Amino acid sequence: LPRSAVVSTVGKMKKLVASLESAASSTWADYEVATPYEQAESDAKAAFVAEAAAKAAAKGVAVDVGANAGLFTKILASHFDQTIGIDLDQGAIDALYAELSRSRTGNITPLVVDITNPTPAFGWRGKERMAFTDRIQPDFATWLAVVHHLSLGTGLPLPSVVAQIFEFSPEAVVEFVSLEDPMAKRISASRTEELGPYSRELFEQCLNDNGTVIHSEDVSATRTMYHLRRN
């Protein structure tokens, strides 16, 4: 084909793609504003994340696991060169992408990723494209309101969840939600099989087995924040 025909075809494709809008529904896009928790709790969480990120004194890559619509992703972006917000909820990631497009924020990448089943290595001999966890190698990560979903919702053993947190990045902020929390009760009520051991005592024991707790803080009667560093 002549160059003019190729240029015309590409131009039409660009216009088509630019006009597309996602129809993905969302379970969690409004989570940050729809939850029954006090504003003081959200403020305390934000302050804890900001302080931990500043203490990390890193300027590499940070990942916000379970980013929702990006409230804490944006906090990380002010401390790191590149921040990746990941969530399984396509609607929530779409909302974050749309906001970033409007604000022209350049150091946040929103991605739809299931942390329980991230993209593996694939292609010829499994070497053409690296696994998601091998591609990013973050210096810092946040796991806010995630652990109870993995343990109580998905059914992953709590020690295994903690081990993954320390394997994922050398430094992290993690939120632990007790069984008495309204959201934890809601998640565990839908389980049809017996839950594995889940308690703050077991969680802290697992933390000490894998790394060091730099700082911890109760942000509510049922939620505690931890700043962790891998041994």
How would you portray this structure in words?
This protein has 231 residues and is an alpha/beta fold. Helix content is 45%, strand content 19%. It is globular.
Question: Summarize this, please?
Answer:
This protein has 231 residues and is an alpha/beta fold.
**Continuous helix count:** 10
**SSE topology string:** HHHEHEHEHEHHEHHEE
Q: What would the principal axes of the Cα set say about the shape?
A: globular
Weakly predicted, low-confidence segments: none
Please state the structural category. Answer: alpha/beta
Percent of residues in β-strands:
15-25%
| Mean pLDDT over the full residue set | 91
Share of helix among residues? 40-55%
What order do the strands of the largest sheet run in, or round the barrel if closed? Answer: 3-2-1-4-5-7-6
Distance between the termini: 60 Å
Using DSSP, what is the number of strands? Answer: 7
Largest sheet, in brief, is:
7 strands, mixed
